[in-house]
Each structure stands twice: as structure tokens, then as C-alpha cells.
Write a structure and sequence with these properties.
Blueprint (H helix, E strand, L loop, with lengths): L1 E5 L4 H14 L8 E4 L9 E2 L12 H10 L7 H14 L10 H23 L3 E2 L9 E5 L7 H11 L4 E5 L3 E6 L2 E6 L10 H13 L7 H7 L14 H18 L5 H15 L9 H5 L25 E5 L4 H6 L6 H13 L7 E4 L6 E4 L2 E4 L4 H18 L3 E5 L1 H8 L5 H4 L3 E3 L5 E5 L2 H6 L3 H22 L9
Helix pairs in contact: 2-4, 3-4, 12-17, 13-14
This protein binds uracil.
């Protein structure tokens, strides 16, 4: 089989030219094999020369992706790219097909390369190798990237350190920047680099930015993987900093009152304002809500709309905020979205009288337009302020399950604003550890124009309500639909 051997330097251009040539000549992917000088051709492979490249039109997004994927360390990368390019010829829309497994794989590879480039930018540590009398300062670093990211990342360093000479040596390809020119060379042996003053500077810097009260060892290791530590001077300080973190955090806490009193008081007040929950008797909660001025929404709404339902309900249902009719009547879910909710809840066997139903935000947010009041989505600050009341309601009802209807409720309850359509039908842990079943908002169903899609979404919503009904009726949870 004809085998294409790509160079280790300028690989992206070489792959692009070769792929263009083979594609233009109509050579299908199963008639060639690909590799570079690190990979041996197969026993029966013969060297292939790409036909002269003609004009081939490919989506720009493919070119951008291929320019990253060629630097991945997977030996199948060139063949995968070519096979996908072959398919793209007749189906350019494939670049947008999120369900395509070949594209998904290439996207993952692209992401790995980007991540590796990011690590390189963050973790390369230069040492001074200049000699007395040199006209330009001179630095060298040893780095061991996971992928072949030296070449695509070199420009970043060239821009950043344009006024000095430097080299980044790796076990694979190394880069040299001398008198303003970049040069790449393969296979440089690991040099012995001098320890210099900047080494101690890194350690001191790291010790100073390290916050023991914020220590999360796993997160830290995923951001700064251990494999990079050996070439980073400051990493020597890490074990010691981790071991002493609890004691240092206690020390810091003890010293906290020495903060300027005004700043400390403001920070404490802000924290308390967000985290404290209702302390009074449960019955008085709904009345107390009417005096809420925690965010500006109270000034235009008719009234705050509290939750309603049994205070010992097994299920709590949380919507977004009261709408126009809810604002006027002072009760949640009585307008069009509430009527649709009632109808589907009925079909799902969910008895509204047995659940506690409320909203993430208790005042109606709207823009006046003539005689109507147009619903406006509450922003993250308003949701955060109103969580004080939601937390108080949860503390009062202590439900076994909370049903979050819509993205605002999901954000308030779980802290995550990730795509709801991808999360619906799943149970996540709420802020206090309570299970939160995520579902759509009935108003979303009302807004859907496409009848088929609305029918499908309604079926999901009904299935989610049926699951909640099982809990409200104290039956085992059925599986997600
Ligand atoms: N939408 C909501 O989220 N809550 C209501 O109470 C009414 C409409």
C-alpha cells in the first residue's frame, strides 16, 4: 500500500499539501497509509508521493481543526483526518454534525492539543544561559510536552520574548529563537541547565500566591499535572505547602480581624446576607417575604409571591419567577404556564395539592410595553439574592426531592447554568446535597412553534412529573425517560 511519510517539522503544511493532492486525484482513504519519521511503515507499504495539489474547497472550520490535530501524538491522526476530509467532500454539513463519531474523535484530539499548548505556555521555565559580553540575553528551557506542540506554540514565545534569544528543548523537536528568527531541530539531548537566581524567584512567587485556605489538591493537580513538576522550580515547594496548608489556614483565620475593620465588616455582611436563612417560625415566612427589599425587583412588582403547599411535602417544585397573573393574584403558577403545568401534572398523576410549589425568584420582573407587562428573565444577581428565601423554604419543607423547572431554577438549586436540555431527566445534587430532578419549564413548551418538537418536549416533561409523582406518593423512583 502506498505510504506517506510526513516530516516532523512543518508537518501541518506537509499534511495539507499531501491531502489536497490525494483528494484532488480521487485517492480514497483506504488506498494509502500515513505516518511520520517516528512511525515505521507497514511491511508491505511502499513510499508514496502525493500528486501535485490542485484546488480543493474545504470548510474553514475543518482547516482550523486539522491544523491542531496534526500535532496530536496519536499515530492514526493523519489517516483519520484524511478519512474525514474524504467524507466532507460530498457532505460539508458534516462539520456541524455533533453526533458524528469521527468528528467527535477529531474534536477531542483538537482539544487535547489546545490543552497541551496551554500547559506549555504556563509551565515552560527558562534559565539564564547568557555569557558575559553577549549582546542579547539568552535563556533555555527543557520541556516534555504530551503532544507535538512545540511548533504551533513557538510563535507565542517569539512574540512574548522578542528581545532575547531563547530555546525550548524537548525530547522530540526543539525550537531556537536567535536574533529574531525561529528555527526548529529534531532530537536534542537533554541539556544540563544551570540553576539561576530566577529559580528561587519562582519558589518565592509561588509561596506568596499560594492560598492555603483555598487548597484543593485534586483541582491543583489537574491544572498543574505532576508530570510537569520536575521542570518547574516552584514545584519543589508544593509538598511542603500542602502539608502545612491546614495550619496556615487556621493562622490566617485567627488573624482575620486585623483586616481593616470596614472592609472586613463589609465582606462578612455580604457573606451573611447571601448564606443566612430564615430563622423565624415557618408560618411567618410567607408574610416576612412581603417586606423583602434584597434586590430592586420589589419596587415594581405588586407583591412577592410565596410558595404554596403542605409544609411537609415530599416534593418541592421550583419555577423561575411569578408571571403577570401570579403577581396580581399572589399565588404561583396560576397563569398560562401554571394551567399547562396543571394539565400535564394531572396526566402524569401528580397531585398539585400534595407538593410544595414555589419559584426561584419571588417578585415579577417585567418591562412595561403599553398596557402589558413583558416578562423579563431574572439575572444571576437577582437569583442569588432570592436564594435566601428559597433556602428558607427548603429548610422548612425538607423535601425528599426537588423538581427544578427551567434553567433559572436549575441555576438557583444546583449552582450550574449548563445547558438544561442536556441535563433534563437527570438528578443532580442541590447546594445542600438534596436530590434535584431537572426538567423543562412549562412556559418553554408554550413558546415552542414546531408541533412535533413540542409534542416530544411535552412527553419528557410529563415523564419527569411522573417521576416526581412517584416520590410525592412515596413509591420507588422509575428510571429516567
Ligand atoms: N412561571 C414561573 O416560573 N412561575 C410562576 O409562578 C408562573 C410562571
Amino acid at each position: 500500500m502506498p505510504h506517506v511519510t510526513l516530516p516532523r517539522i512543518a508537518t501541518a503544511t506537509a499534511w495539507r499539501d499531501a491531502a489536497r493532492g490525494f483528494l484532488g486525484a480521487g485517492i480514497p482513504p483506504d488506498q494509502i497509509t500515513w505516518g511520520d519519521s517516528r512511525t515505521d511503515p507497514g511491511l508491505f507499504d511502499t513510499p508514496a508521493t502525493a500528486p501535485a495539489a490542485g484546488t480543493v474547497t474545504v470548510p474553514r472550520s475543518f482547516v482550523a481543526m486539522a491544523d491542531k490535530v496534526v500535532w496530536h501524538n496519536d499515530p492514526t491522526r493523519f489517516a483519520r483526518l484524511y478519512a474525514f476530509l474524504w467524507r466532507l467532500r460530498d457532505a460539508p454539513h458534516l462539520m456541524n454534525d455533533r453526533g458524528d463519531p469521527d468528528l467527535a474523535r477529531l474534536r477531542r484530539m483538537e482539544k487535547n492539543v489546545r490543552r497541551c499548548q496551554h500547559k506549555m505556555k504556563a509551565f515552560v521555565r527558562f534559565r539564564d544561559i547568557g555569557q558575559p559580553g553577549d549582546t542579547r540575553r539568552s535563556f533555555a528551557a527543557w520541556f516534555e510536552p504530551t503532544h507535538h506542540t512545540i511548533e504551533p506554540t513557538a510563535q507565542f514565545f517569539a512574540r512574548r520574548f522578542a528581545d532575547m534569544d531563547w530555546r525550548i528543548l524537548t525530547p522530540d523537536v526543539s525550537v531556537f529563537f536567535e536574533n529574531g528568527h525561529l528555527r526548529f531541530a529534531p532530537d536534542h539531548p537533554r541539556p544540563t541547565l544551570p540553576q539561576d537566581a530566577s529559580e528561587q524567584l519562582w519558589v518565592t512567587y509561588f509561596r506568596n500566591i499560594f492560598n492555603p485556605a483555598r487548597l484543593k489538591v485534586q483541582a491543583m493537580q489537574s491544572e498543574m499535572p505532576k508530570k510537569y513538576w520536575k521542570n518547574m522550580p516552584e514545584a519543589a515547594a508544593i509538598p511542603d505547602l500542602i502539608a502545612n496548608a491546614p495550619a496556615r489556614a487556621r493562622e490566617m483565620a485567627a488573624k482575620a480581624p486585623t483586616l481593616p475593620p470596614l472592609r472586613a465588616a463589609a465582606a462578612q455582611a455580604q457573606q451573611a446576607a447571601l448564606t443566612s436563612a430564615w430563622q423565624g417560625p415557618a408560618d411567618a415566612l410567607q408574610e416576612a417575604l412581603q417586606d423583602c427589599t434584597r434586590c430592586p425587583l420589589h419596587s415594581h412588582a405588586t407583591q412577592a409571591v410565596p410558595g404554596e403547599g403542605p409544609q411537609d411535602a415530599a416534593v418541592m417544585i421550583v419555577g423561575e419567577q411569578p408571571g403577570d397573573m401570579e403577581d396580581l393574584q399572589g399565588r404561583p403558577f396560576v397563569g398560562p404556564a401554571g394551567q399547562l403545568f396543571d394539565q400535564i401534572a394531572n396526566q402524569a398523576g401528580l397531585d398539585r395539592g400534595r407538593v410544595y410549589i414555589t419559584n426561584a425568584v419571588k417578585h415579577f420582573k417585567f418591562t412595561p410595553r403599553g398596557r402589558t407587562r413583558l416578562h423579563q428573565r431574572p439575572d444571576a444577581g437577582e437569583v442569588t439574592q432570592c436564594r435566601w428565601w428559597l433556602a428558607a423554604e427548603i429548610k422548612m419543607v425538607r423535601p425528599d426531592l426537588i423538581l427544578a423547572m427551567g434553567a433559572t431554577a436549575a441555576l438557583a438549586l444546583t449552582g450550574s447554568g449548563a445547558n438544561l436540555l442536556q441535563r433534563r431527566g437527570t438528578i443532580e445534587a442541590g447546594r445542600d446535597g438534596r436530590p434535584v430532578l431537572l426538567t423543562l419549564h412549562p412556559a418553554y413548551l408554550l413558546r415552542m412553534k414546531d408541533a412535533h418538537k413540542r409534542q416530544e418536549a411535552t412527553a419528557w416533561f410529563q415523564a419527569d412529573l411522573a417521576r416526581a409523582a412517584q416520590v410525592a406518593g412515596v413509591a420507588p423512583l422509575p428510571r429516567a425517560v
